[in-house]
C-alpha cells in the first residue's frame, strides 16, 4: 500500500513547495523508505529557466524548473512519469505591441504566453510536444530561435494554445495523469505529489487518494490528514485555492517553522517531526 502525500502552496508563487517535496523525499529515503515525487502539471517561464532549458536538451524532452530540481537533488527521477504535463511560457517582445498597456495585458493571459507543451503517455512511454506558432512569433529574435530549435528537436506539432489549455484542464487529461501515477507507484512506499501555484490539488482525483496534506508558505509548514482535507474540500464545494480552505482546516497535526537554507538537502534535516507523523 503506497502512502500518498500532497504538498500545496499558500501563495501563488514562491511558497516553497518544490524544496519541501525534495527535502521530505530525501528525509524519508534516509529512513529506508522507497520514495518518489510526482508533479502532474508544471509550467515554467523560459526567462530565468536556463538550467531547465539545458536539461530539456539533455534528456530530449521539455522539462521545467521543478523536475530539473528533482533530478538534481534526488537523482533517479524520470522526467516523463514524474511530470506528465509540462508547459513552457515566454514573455513576448514589448516592441511587438502597439503600446505598453497591450503588452502588460498580454502577460496576464497564459494562453498568449504559452510557446511549448509536452504531454507524456506513461502507458505507451511516448512524449508528444506541441508548439504555439503565433505566440512564438511575438518573441524577441534570440528567444524565438531557442524555442524554434527546441520545437524542431522535439518534433513539436503546431497547436492552438487555448484549445490545448482547455483540453489539459478538463477530464481528458485525467487518464494521462492517473496512468503516470500508477506507473510511479509500482514498488514504492511513499509518493509525494506537488500541486502547482496555489491550487489545492493538481487535479481533483488526487484529493480522494492522499493520506496527508501539507501546506507550505515562506517560513511555515502545516501538516493535515487526508481525511481532514477531504471533509473541508467537500464542505466548501471543491475549493480550488489553498487560501480558501486554510481557515476551515482547523489545527494542524504538525506545524513547523522553516528556516532560511541554501538547498533542499539542508532543509531535509528540519523535517523530522513531519516524517515521524507520516512514516508508515
Automatic annotation (TrEMBL):
This is ATPase. It comes from Pyrodictium delaneyi.
Amino acid at each position: 500500500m503506497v502512502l500518498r502525500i500532497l504538498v500545496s502552496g499558500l501563495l501563488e508563487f514562491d511558497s516553497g513547495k518544490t524544496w519541501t517535496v525534495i527535502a521530505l523525499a530525501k528525509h524519508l529515503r534516509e529512513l529506508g523508505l522507497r520514495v518518489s515525487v510526482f508533479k502532474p502539471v508544471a509550467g515554467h517561464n523560459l526567462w530565468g529557466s536556463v538550467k531547465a532549458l539545458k536539461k530539456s536538451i539533455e534528456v530530449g524532452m521539455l522539462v521545467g524548473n521543478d523536475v530539473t530540481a528533482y533530478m538534481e537533488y534526488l537523482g533517479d527521477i524520470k522526467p516523463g512519469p514524474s511530470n506528465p504535463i509540462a508547459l513552457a511560457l515566454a514573455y513576448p517582445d514589448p516592441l511587438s505591441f502597439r503600446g505598453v498597456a497591450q503588452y502588460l495585458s498580454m502577460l496576464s493571459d497564459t494562453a498568449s504566453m504559452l510557446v511549448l507543451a509536452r504531454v507524456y503517455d506513461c502507458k505507451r512511454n511516448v512524449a508528444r510536444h506541441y508548439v504555439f506558432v503565433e505566440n512564438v512569433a511575438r518573441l524577441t529574435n534570440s528567444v524565438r530561435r531557442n524555442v524554434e530549435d527546441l520545437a524542431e528537436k522535439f518534433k513539436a506539432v503546431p497547436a492552438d494554445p487555448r484549445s490545448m489549455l482547455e483540453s489539459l484542464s478538463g477530464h481528458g487529461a485525467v487518464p494521462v495523469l492517473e496512468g503516470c501515477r500508477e506507473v510511479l507507484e509500482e514498488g514504492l512506499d511513499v509518493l509525494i505529489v506537488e500541486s502547482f501555484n496555489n491550487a489545492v490539488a493538481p487535479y481533483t482525483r488526487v484529493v480522494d487518494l492522499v493520506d496527508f496534506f501539507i501546506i507550505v508558505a515562506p517560513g511555515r509548514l502545516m501538516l493535515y490528514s487526508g481525511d481532514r482535507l477531504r471533509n473541508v474540500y467537500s464542505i466548501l464545494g471543491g475549493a480550488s485555492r489553498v487560501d480558501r480552505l486554510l481557515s476551515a482546516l482547523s489545527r494542524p497535526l504538525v506545524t513547523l517553522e522553516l528556516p532560511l537554507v541554501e538547498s533542499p538537502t539542508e532543509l531535509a534535516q528540519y523535517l523530522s517531526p513531519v516524517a515521524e507523523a507520516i512514516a508508515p
